[in-house]
Amino acid sequence: LFFFLLKLWIALDVIGTTNALLLLLYLLLFNYIVVLETYNEWKHAIHTLFPIIVDTKFLASALQKDLQEEDCPDFSLLTLGTFLNSELSAKILPISIPLCTGNDSGERTVEFFKEYANYHNAAFDALVTGNVFIKLAHLFVLKRCSEKLDQCWPLRRLFVVCRKDIANKIPIPLIDAQCCNLDGEDASGYRPDIIRVMRNHRSSGTASNSIRKLFSILWSLLCSSSERIESEEYERVRDDLVRVFGSFRVDVRMGARNESLEIATNTASTYARVCAFFDAHDDYTVVGDVGQTFEQRLCSSRTEKIGNKIYPSKCRSGSNISIVVAVFAVAIWTGARLLRNIS
What we know:
Blueprint: H1 2-12, E1 14-17, H2 20-29, H3 39-49, E2 52-55, H4 56-62, H5 64-69, H6 77-84, H7 107-116, H8 122-144, H9 155-162, E3 169-170, E4 180-181, E5 189-192, E6 195-199, H10 209-222, H11 231-245, E7 250-254, E8 261-265, H12 268-279, E9 284-286, H13 294-298, E10 302-306, E11 309-312, H14 316-342
Parallel strand pairs: 1-2
Antiparallel strand pairs: 3-4, 5-10, 6-8, 6-9, 7-8, 10-11
Helix pairs in contact: 4-8, 6-8, 8-9, 10-14
């Protein structure tokens, strides 16, 4: 893969790749003896080394609607390679772009993928990366540039078309930001709110399970103090979260006065999954997230990250007022139910 990309770079002063971030880190390691200290230094070094970079995953994301309408579910190299070299791709790409030259019908391409597909093999992945880029670039021309396609375009012309909107945008996996922009400042990212969990407080054993759960949530929201969490228990909960979600998706710290745990997550999806994890937990309850569904949490209030500062989203104050009103309403209802059970 390295030598294929190097040859392309020397010939056209560009580089085409998939999952570019790890590859660029690897290539930079062999071009710089001194370790770069800042993110901006790394961006400058990469941009100097490779003036034009096109990542197939980012290019595919620009065509997401068109690809998903034809049942291409994700943008991994395996999925894109399989889809674009099957008969299905003919529905959205009207011209034949065979993998092997000298066969305008493209039949040899389909046969090649059926017989020799070997993903995660460096040589095969390099071949497919180039093939996927060429086909996606033609699709980009067709869908986004309103150009008529009756034959294949030269490679350099395809790079020119992709230069403004696609080139030098490097996807960074597992974070809630679109990309690293080598041409300038990165767009401001968004991260989910901190998840705060507290110990459950049990009501009397005569109450039903639903009332006990509701009592626990209300107590956590309304009480000014809670039982302290020991460091051993903190480590146990943290290990459970890392085992279920991975250390690269969650981080945990002790809350104020060791009375709660605060959990940071990398994306809205992880945020919703962690909340669901504690919904089913025997010992802990999420604070300030009463009765929300997975879908509501997925689109819940966010915080905008600018540099290292975090600014609350505008909708938080109204959300907090709604929660307080709901809590008092439910408290009255719960008290009435408990009195009825006692009498």
